[in-house]
Amino acid sequence: MATSTAENTYLRLKTVLDVLTEGTWTGEARNAGEVLAEATARVPFTDHEAVLLSGGIPRGHKTLTSATAKLVKAGWLVKGRSGWTITEDGMRATVAFPDADAFATALDAGTPVPAGTPLPAAPAVRKAPAAKVAAASKTSGTKAVAAEATAKKAPARKAPGKKAAEAVGKAAKLIEEAVEPVVKAVRSRKAPAAKSTSPEVVAEPLEGPDEETFPQPEAVAVAGDFNTLLGAPENWAPQYDESQMDFDFGSQLWIKSTELPAGYYTFKIALNRSWTENYGAFGTFDGPNHELQHDGGTVTIRYDHRTRDITINS
How far is 20 from 150, CA to CA, in rounded Å? Predict the structure, then answer.
């Protein structure tokens, strides 16, 4: 692994293209969250990159998410509602710039992929030699009889499909384990995290709305007249941990679920632990309060920073 956040970020950007290229070989479609999770599983966060920002997002993940705009600008990646798609130039870039240094230099300088660069070749499917196939066919009759005689005694063997599913499950578990600790860590914190003075990558802003990984604030709070019921020292207080929402990587939504007694409540969505940027009813900036007539029990509030939409399920 590289030694700096910048070097690691470029390694992960190249890995993003590698993962998407592999998907074209297998016909497997992956959404943005899955692609980023795989990239960070292959190039794990350093201790510095794993530090949680106040919204529960690891520093390295936020840096990588913003930096993917470079791939879009280079014409190597297309982001859409249905997921991410690698372009032919993006696949050729993995061949033209195979090592991390060349890839980073080309991406920063806007170097086009050289004409004539081939597409990466899919892994060859290995076949048994013809002689072995012929020999196997000659003995197949004898083996079939023997197999029939012992089938009832032999323990059942796992089907190849089941083995493949188990392998995929293990891989998914590794990715989940890479992300889950940071989510658990932020839920257990009680004091706001101190701002880091370590240098970070300054990524280019997105050229337009990113449907899958829109740049997120560092924290989102539900600030209203029920914050004390959540354990905060006072109401209408976006600065306290008890008021903060959790970010869900898969849906790209900020979520807060809690138990509230029956009653009428009002609240707003406030960003980055202050009232400088807040959204009220209909996602209006500094708009009127949201209203909640609650029958009692669990209520779940979701905030989509791409659209400023707020939904309530109670």
Answer: 45
- pTM, to two decimals: 0.47
Complete DSSP assignment for 36-85: HHHHHHHS---TTTTPBPTTS-BHHHHHHHHHHHHHHHHTSEEEETTEEE
- Phi/psi for 277 (5° steps) reads -125, 115
Alpha helix locations (H) across 81-129? 88-96, 100-109
Output the CA–CA distances (angstroms, integers) from residue 176 to 38, 54, 164, 183, 250, in the order listed: 10, 21, 18, 11, 11
- Using the structure block, give the residue that is written with the tokens 């354990």: 231
State in Å, rounded, how far the first CA of the chain is from the last one.
Answer: 46
CA nearest 80: which of 209, 252, 206?
209
264 Cβ neighbours under 8 A, 6+ residues apart: 291, 292, 293, 294
pLDDT at 128 over 70: no
What integer pLDDT is reported at residue 233 of this predicted model?
92
- pLDDT tens digits along 141-170: 545 444 454 444 444 444 334 444 444 445
Angle ∠(254,259,265) on CA atoms, nearest 5: 80
Give the DSSP H/E element, type plus range, for residue 270. strand 263-271
